Amino acid sequence: MKKNFFSILALGLLMASCNNDDDAVTASPSLKLNLTGLEDLGPDYKYEGWIIVNGAPVSTGVFTVDGSGVLSKTTFDVDATNLAAATKFVLSIEPTVDPSPAPSDTKYLVGDFTGNSATVSSGIVGDFSASTGKYLLATPTNGNMNPEAGIWFIDNTSGTGMAGLNLPTLDSGWKYEGWVVSNGVVLSTGKFSAVDASDEAAPYSGTMMAPPFPGEDFLMNAPTGLTFPGNLSGSTIVISVEPSPDNSTMPFAMKPLVHTVANPAVTGNVIDMNSNLASLPSGTVTR
């Protein structure tokens, strides 16, 4: 009886040992993402994670984000050798149909590994901690006949027009864009890369020459829900950082500067914008 008992016990231990060995062989090292502030990119774009191994990027996988900011996937199986050797994590924005195996120019979050984790931030896009903004309500493209209908990111307190925005220079994968939210309608004032030059669009301005700075007069071609000439009283003004290329008609999640126009609007005066660093995405990555 004792012999049989010990034989059964030994067999059980052997089976348990085999099972544990199987678990050790089949278990895969993983990378876990805990990120906040990401937004839905729509059907044409996706997020992709990368680890930097011996100076080269290695993809950790792709994911999407829904309208509530929830990631479609947060845990990714990664080669053990690469994961152990990784020095940095990078998150990029990629086309859904992506012809290139390399990261795009639109690199969004980055962080160095310290031990088994990396704290990631949007510092790779730019340092917005010292960013400031000023704007003027005026309509230079119709001779300032409706000053409450236009916004220009200009500082003329010294008597001459100067750039009203102090923002870091962006890499090729990003552009700035100005926005006005008026009566629930979101209007772009145009994309731009330089704060001291005209932006890329003027769909609503008048026919007279505009100043060489980002801005827009809301005088014609009013979208549904608005009547032009407009009145920006009580409107929200936003400077956002947009992926480039960009398929969305709405502001991206990164909004370093915001302000609410007084109601009634004060025209002819330079107005300061507010810093909005809380809108910038961040998080941790654990291996």
Give the key terms.
disordered N terminus; elongated; eight-stranded antiparallel β-sheet; 287 residues; five-stranded antiparallel β-sheet; mainly beta
What does this protein look like?
The chain contains 2 helices and 20 strands. The protein has helices at 2-26, 80-85, and strands at residues 30-36, 45-53, 56-63, 75-77, 88-95, 107-114, 117-121, 132-137, 150-152, 154-155, 162-163, 165-166, 174-182, 185-192, 215-217, 236-243, 254-260, 270-272, 274-275, 282-286. The chain is elongated, with a radius of gyration of 26 Å. The two termini are 50 Å apart. The strands form 4 sheets. The protein has an 8-stranded antiparallel sheet with strand order 3-2-5-6-7-20-1-4. Helices cover 11% and strands 38% of the residues. The model is unreliable at 1-26 (pLDDT under 50). It is mainly β.
List the helices and strands and how they pair.
Blueprint: H1 2-26, E1 30-36, E2 45-53, E3 56-63, E4 75-77, H2 80-85, E5 88-95, E6 107-114, E7 117-121, E8 132-137, E9 150-152, E10 154-155, E11 162-163, E12 165-166, E13 174-182, E14 185-192, E15 215-217, E16 236-243, E17 254-260, E18 270-272, E19 274-275, E20 282-286
Antiparallel strand pairs: 1-4, 1-20, 2-3, 2-5, 5-6, 6-7, 7-20, 8-9, 8-12, 8-18, 9-15, 10-11, 13-14, 13-16, 16-17, 17-19
